[in-house]
Design goal:
The structure holds two protein chains of two kinds. By secondary structure, chain A is an alpha/beta fold. Chain A contains five helices and seven strands, in the order βαβββαβαβαβα. The relative contact order of chain A is 0.19. By secondary structure, chain B is mostly helical. Chain B has a single domain (20-127), classed as Orthogonal Bundle (Arc Repressor Mutant, subunit A), CATH 1.10.10.10. The chains are: A alpha/beta, B mainly alpha. Chains A and B meet through β1, α1, β2, β3 and β4 of A and β1, β3, α4 and α6 of B.
């Protein structure tokens, strides 16, 4: 069944939910989206293995990658889309377009795999996105020392770091609200 | 060790069964900024009659948007067509006057505050925070 937008909706905005593989992007979107999360197939160009024997140049190929997204209607006129964006460098093309006009990014990190978040943060920063960090714990404990995360990821003081359990709607919503509150303070 | 119950599908690689140029009738991609993920589309009035002459994929898109507004990303998601294809089809359909398109409003500094404030209010109302 297709769930259509309110006919009065005149503005659609987006927030990127980013993070490394397996960090919980899909779960986060699923916990707060008003529609069953959908996928787009995005085309990306990447170098294939080895070299073309005849030309001696790296061979490029186009593949498609599936990306999850969800939706939240916020008022009669306003709808928010949440795009789960993979954090690998090879998806840079997707980031080009997704980051354009995006309000900001919620960066999900896993405390036991913090080192995997560095490439993600590099991408977020290279595209000039304002972000907040959601420290996701799948074991349900949200009392992880957030200062350690801040230090390990070398974050600035104003970057919000919030504990969350992305399986929980209220917890995911709280992380999102933390991000948007931060975006407002960054306007100066 | 991976013990997350989470199933990220972002590495699922797929490939089209029909060559893309066949679906699009040889038309090329419009520029990226046209038909972005959050551009909203719906069928124009009287478009369903004209839709009979469309390709099966374009008709699939027409059928989907004939009952209300959806984002370009949702059109791609519901039809299972690659986003690039959806963009080309929508560009053709807009050119033929079959669809109505609401492009994202360009952002301006002052509008940003109002917009973010509306987003924040909407989230708080929705989640009772």
């Amino acid at each position: 069944m297709t769930v259509y937008l309110d006919p009065e909706v005149s503005q659609a905005v987006k927030v990127l939910i980013v993070g490394h593989f397996g960090v919980g992007k899909t779960t986060c979107i699923g916990s707060i989206s008003e529609i069953e999360p959908l996928q787009t197939e995005e085309e990306i160009t990447e170098a294939s293995e080895g070299f073309d024997d005849l030309s001696g140049t790296p061979h490029k190929k186009t593949t498609t990658v599936a990306m999850d997204f969800g939706r939240l209607t916020l008022s009669d006129q306003l709808v928010l889309y949440l795009f789960g964006t993979p954090g690998q460098e090879r998806f840079k093309e997707m980031w080009e377009e997704l980051s354009r006009g995006a309000l900001g990014a919620l960066v999900l990190v896993a405390p036991e795999r913090l080192h995997e978040s560095f490439p993600v943060l590099d991408l977020v920063e290279s595209f000039g996105l304002t972000y907040a960090i959601g420290v996701n714990r799948f074991d349900g404990t949200t009392d992880y020392p957030l200062d350690e995360v801040r230090e390990a990821l070398n974050l600035t003081e104003e970057t919000p770091v919030v504990a969350c359990d992305v399986r929980d709607e209220a917890s995911s919503a709280n992380a999102l609200i933390t991000l948007v509150t931060h975006l407002m303070t960054q306007l100066g | 060790m991976r013990d997350e119950p989470d199933q990220d599908l972002d590495l699922e690689l797929t490939s089209p069964l029909v060559p893309l140029f066949v679906i699009t009738g040889g038309h090329a991609l419009p520029p990226d900024h046209e038909y972005g993920h959050t551009t909203l589309v719906t069928a124009g009035e009287g478009a369903s009659a004209a839709a009979r002459t469309l390709s099966p994929e374009a008709r699939q898109v027409m059928d989907l948007v004939s009952d209300g507004f959806l984002s370009v990303a949702e059109v791609a998601g519901h039809t299972h067509l690659p986003l690039g294809i959806v963009r080309i089809l929508l560009a053709q359909m807009e050119g033929s006057g079959l669809i109505i398109v609401r492009k994202p409003v360009p952002r301006a500094e002052r509008a940003d505050r109002e917009l973010l404030s509306a987003v924040l209010d909407g989230l708080k109302t929705r989640f009772g925070a």
